[in-house]
């Protein structure tokens, strides 16, 4: 008996299961320490190899997800292999009971039990090792079940994230274009129904980012499907509607405030994870064409001063766009 193998095996298994449950089941916990470090390493690797003008970053999310699943399965397999190695007689070859078991046969046995729920040509020693084999099989079922449900949840969240982006960018590719499209000559209430739906989806997206940290690493090379670009467009539009109008009672103020609050919570969740604010503020949108169309806006100078007061928020939005490898929508 070798206590080093026992302790090492239990440690590896325990840490891996903790990381697995932490990442897949703890809604507010973010990613576990192991999967978080792996995701950061993959992200840094892609940043060194990638090009902002191609679709290279579209693979970051899938590669991170597959690598995380592989890490969990590999470590659990290693952990049980180490534990069974603590006793040279823990398993036996059913076809040749008198033969000596070597290390790769233990690796084969634990992997076969973990992933296929079968014993194959080997059997555990009666008593304690039969119980350990049952636990090995049970951990395998737990692992496969959690991973399957986690994959489905992450992919569904990615689809919803892109759907949200497209529902916003369909209104316009920049804030001034959205303002122009929703102005009906009297007010801006054309956007009300959109805001009701979008506000709810942004709140849902925020919770999904908390529940599925790997969602941070799913990138779309199409700006129209990028949540960071779409939310920047929406937030700038709401800033204009909230503080940039020359006349009152043209908008639903409470609805705008509610959506702004949802975006604030979303930005906070990104900042806690992978996003750092940009060092420079994004460019000020040109509202002269809107003023020429008699859209009731404040003067261009007052509008520029208004955005100066919003600089920190706009830097957060810019940081989210930069880490998503896109450009500010007014550029």
Q: Number of folding domains?
A: 2
How much helix is in the residues? Answer: 55-70%
Strand order of the largest sheet: 1-2
The amount of beta strand, in percent, is: under 5%
Tell me the structural class.
mainly alpha
Total count of strands: 2
What oligomeric state do the depicted chains represent?
A: single chain
Please, what is the average pLDDT? 87
Low-confidence stretches: none
The shape is: elongated
Cα radius of gyration in angstroms: 27 Å
Structural summary, described in words:
By secondary structure, the chain is mostly helical. It has two domains: 3-147, Orthogonal Bundle (Helix Hairpins); 152-323, no CATH class. The chain is built from twelve helices and two strands, in the order H-H-H-E-H-E-H-H-H-H-H-H-H-H. A two-stranded antiparallel sheet has the order 1-2. Helix 5 (128-169) crosses helix 8. The chain is elongated and about 95 Å long.
């Amino acid at each position: 008996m070798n206590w080093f193998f026992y302790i090492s095996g239990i440690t590896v298994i325990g840490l891996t299961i903790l990381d697995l449950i932490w990442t897949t089941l703890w809604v507010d916990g973010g990613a576990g320490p192991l999967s978080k470090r792996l995701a950061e390493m993959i992200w840094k690797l892609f940043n060194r190899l990638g090009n902002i003008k191609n679709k290279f970053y579209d693979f970051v999310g899938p590669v991170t997800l597959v690598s995380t699943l592989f890490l969990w399965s590999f470590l659990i397999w290693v952990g049980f292999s180490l534990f069974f190695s603590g006793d040279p007689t823990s398993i036996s070859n059913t076809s040749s009971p008198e033969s000596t078991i070597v290390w790769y046969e233990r690796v084969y046995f634990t992997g076969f039990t973990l992933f296929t729920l079968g014993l194959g040509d080997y059997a555990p020693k009666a008593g304690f090792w039969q119980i350990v084999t049952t636990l090995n099989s049970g951990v395998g079922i737990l692992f496969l079940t959690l991973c399957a449900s986690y994959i489905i949840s992450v992919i569904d969240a990615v689809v919803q994230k892109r759907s949200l982006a497209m529902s916003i960018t369909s209104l316009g590719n920049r804030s001034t274009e959205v303002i122009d499209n929703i102005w009906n000559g009297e007010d801006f209430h054309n956007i009300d129904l959109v805001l009701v739906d979008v506000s709810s989806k942004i709140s849902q997206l925020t919770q999904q980012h908390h529940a599925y940290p790997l969602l941070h690493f799913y990138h779309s090379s199409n700006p129209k499907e990028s949540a960071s670009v779409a939310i920047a467009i929406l937030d700038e539009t709401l800033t204009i509607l909230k503080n940039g109008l020359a006349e009152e009672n043209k908008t639903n103020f409470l609805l705008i405030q509610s959506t702004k609050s949802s975006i604030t919570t979303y930005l906070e969740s990104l900042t806690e994870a992978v996003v750092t604010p940009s060092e420079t503020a994004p460019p000020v949108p040109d509202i002269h064409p809107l003023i020429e169309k008699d859209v009731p806006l404040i003067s261009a100078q007052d509008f520029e001063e208004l955005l100066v007061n919003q600089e920190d928020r706009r830097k957060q939005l810019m940081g989210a766009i930069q880490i998503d490898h896109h450009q500010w929508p007014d550029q």
